[in-house]
Amino acid sequence: MAKYVLIVDDAPNIVLSLEFLMKKEGYDVHSVSNGEEAMAAIAEKIPDLILLDVMMPRKDGYEVCQELRASPDWRDIKIIMLTAKGRDVEREKGLALGADDYVTKPFATQELVEKVNNLLG
Amino acid sequence: MFHAVTEPSTLFDQGIQIPLIDSFYMDQGSLLKTLLYELKDGVIVCDSGARITLFNQAAEDLFGQYKLLKKGLSLYALCYQPPVEEALRLLAYQHSLSSQAQMLPYIQFINKAVGRNQYFRCRVSFSSPPSAGKKSFVLVLEDISAWYTPENPLLLKIEEFRAPMTNIRAAVENLTEYPEMSPVMRSAFENVLVQETHNLTKAFDDLARSCNVLMQTQNHLMELSTEVLFNYVAHHLEHQGIPVTATPDTAICVKVDIYGLLLMLNFLADKIRLEQTKKELTCKAHVGEQFIFLDFIWPGKYMATGSVSAMLEEQLEYSLGEMPLGSLLHVMDGDIWSQQHNKKKSMLRLALPIVKRADN
């Protein structure tokens, strides 16, 4: 059965690229545009991996990550934060709050695909 | 002030009681010492053999916490010899040619710290009389690393961005304007987009790094060793009933605005006590790989991200310009977040970056 990737990002152009890439790799894909929709989608079906933007309206990526890690049902979901917040201290914060990886925008798409494939093994 | 020092007799004759005159006149050494200390630029005085005889605090700060400056040390242990000697030769040469009225008071040149990626704008002038043989001299230094480093892309940013932007734009316009073009041409333009986007990303990353370097070389923040900082913070917080455990590393330094930092700590402590309604609040100060951490720890659940974000927006009372907490943190390139500390306790962590040395 195909692994399921949830894309959480409020920028349609990047969602278009991410959906294209993930489908090309054979993953099932669903996209939402904010943190609240993300939590609702996760409650409906637990993804194997989340590509998670940070700066979003209605619950940001840090909050989503922290809530997931606090839940016994969701703490094992792989999370890659995708964000324009590029300072070292922001990366430190993202990883401290539970992200498995932290990718700063703009990014090389093939490197992102490789990270996803490695995490989903 | 100088008037008082240089013309005391005149003032005495006038019967003007200026109690400070005596102390200034007798304490001129202290006055000069204070002026030297307060100068923004580094000042190093050398004898005719280029051995250091005097230096000020700014010169010491330029070389960070290494405490490299010592009386008797050769200047050339700190910065390169040829540029200094060339500047001295030029200074002596133009002294020999010019009349007193036309003499340049100093020669300005660029120099580099020995073994470090640090560049200085230097001004050298003689401190011996012109008639003396080999002369002692005064060197004034200003750190210009952010502007001068040859690899520093800040100076080249405009050109570096124009090239990939131009190429991307041309490729995109061709692709959209000529959808009927041959597959070979399409593939070629698409390759241009891939390559130039890579170049643009690299240019952007370089710009971000340069901005960081620029911020770090601005001396508006004080560089403190963690030993001093942690002990000072501990002293401050313990007065407020917050026990502190500290594990400093004497080799590690942080750039801080100490007043701003203490305001932040007071604010965070008050907020935690209000939100958590717990009296048992402790603090742990420790050093990580890239950051130092000041962790406020309490029993119970961590603070919601929303609460932390709201705190970042709040203006700090008594801060300069009534800055919000987030802005003050940004000045120090720091951040805060709340997370689980262990099974029973949570924490609010304040992270500040460790000073990076170019030769580390």
Structure, briefly:
Chain A has 121 residues and is α/β, with parallel strands linked by helices. Chain A has five helices and five strands, in the order βαβαβαβαβα. With 360 residues, chain B is α+β, with helices and mostly antiparallel strands.
Descriptive account of the structure:
The complex is a heterodimer of chains A (121) and B (360). The model of chain A has no long low-confidence stretch (mean pLDDT 92). Chain A contains five helices and five strands. Chain A is globular, with a radius of gyration of 13 Å. Chain A has 121 residues and is an alpha/beta fold. Chain A has a five-stranded parallel β-sheet, sandwiched between helices. Chain B is of the alpha+beta class. Chain B has three domains: 9-143, 2-Layer Sandwich (Beta-Lactamase); 153-217; 222-353, 2-Layer Sandwich (Heat Shock Protein 90). Chain B is 44% helix and 20% strand. Chain B is built from 13 helices and twelve strands. In chain B, the strands form three sheets. Chain B has a five-stranded antiparallel β-sheet. A five-stranded mixed β-sheet of chain B has the order 7-9-10-12-11. In chain B, strand 9 (282-287) and strand 10 (291-299) form a beta hairpin. In chain B, helix 8 runs antiparallel to helix 9. Chain B is flat, with a radius of gyration of 28 Å. Classes of the chains: A alpha/beta (121), B alpha+beta (360). Chains A and B meet through helix 3 and helix 4 of A and helix 9, helix 12, strand 11 and strand 12 of B.
